Amino acid sequence: MNARPDQLASILNKTVYSVYMVSGDEPLQQMESLDLIRAFLREQGFTEREVLDVDAKFDWQQLLDEAASMSLFATRRIIELRLPSAKPGKQGAQILKDYLARPPEDTVLIVNTGKIDGNAKKSAWFKAIDKAGLFVQCWPVPADKLPYWLKQRFRQRDMDADNEVLEFISQHVEGNLLAADQEIEKLYLLLGPGKISYADVAQAVTSQSRYSVFELIDGLLTGNAKRVIKILSGLKAEGMVPVIINWALAKDIRLLAQVAAVPSSVDFKLKRSGVWQSRITLFKSCMSRHRPRTFQLMLKRCAYIDAVSKGLIDANVWDEIETLCLRLAGTTKAAR
After folding, report:
1. What is the pLDDT of residue 153?
2. Of 18, 169, 194, 316, whose CB is crowded by the most CB atoms within 10 A?
3. Same domain, 169 and 272
4. Between the CA of residue 242 and those of 110, 209, 221, 311, what are the distances in Å?
5. Same domain, yes or no, for 199 and 220?
6. What is the pLDDT of residues 50-99, one digit of tens each?
7. What is the rounded distance in angstroms from the CA atom of residue 79 to the CA atom of residue 108?
8. Could you list the residue range(s) of the whole structural domain that residue 40 is in?
């Protein structure tokens, strides 16, 4: 069965398939589709989850071994197969067909893959998945449909944006849905629910401040501590709301933590998360200076700063932000 991302919520509750496949090159819709499927399966009792990342050294026998293994807790399981290239190769294609010919009980396979082309759709392994399960293909939103998509996203946050706002964001993000959703989230943090006009947006987030926050993040990723301090001082003098800076920090630190946890698929995960090709080296530079555990600790610090910014903890929010920034711009790995 085939489904679009916007149909998924209404389709999921009808049956549990033995396999789900989410394909595409549009990161936001792909991530949200996967989240919906996982959440639905958890509600059905699929509480265990095993992730298999397919790279050049991947042994496809692992899929059959995992399917044949007994659950430690006698619960329903999810096996998530991450296939960035959407090309399993000869061995992978055969094993996928073998798996689907006799799918194990109480186990669901989720195949998370890149864009499926016409040739792949003619293959026997894809036809086996399409016959046995649910296939979700995530296409980019066309430029003429983007304002409507944005309006729906605003409504999810109880915000009613006028046409000028929709047009402004459409031109600014150039089809990048993840960037568009981040812009909406920023505006929600600044303005809250209700009607929103272009004048509101212009007053809340000026271009100068917006790009300064981006420059701050780039300085942090590259480890330029002097520039970081200078930009922070400028943002503070401009009256930038600390919660926006902390939001930007938490967003990228969370991504760093997720990517660092599985270093074998760094490029794929960064691209899937909407990171531009030109910025991937910046993220890698930051990852080379820190251990994966450090990013988790920094993420907890963001939660602390959020509490400080809301007045729940008595501390200087700008001092806390500066301390976290200097730590991210520095290094926690011992020199060899």
Report:
1. 93
2. 169
3. no
4. 39, 12, 19, 12
5. no
6. 899 888 888 999 998 888 876 555 578 999 999 888 889 899 999 999 99
7. 6
8. 2-138
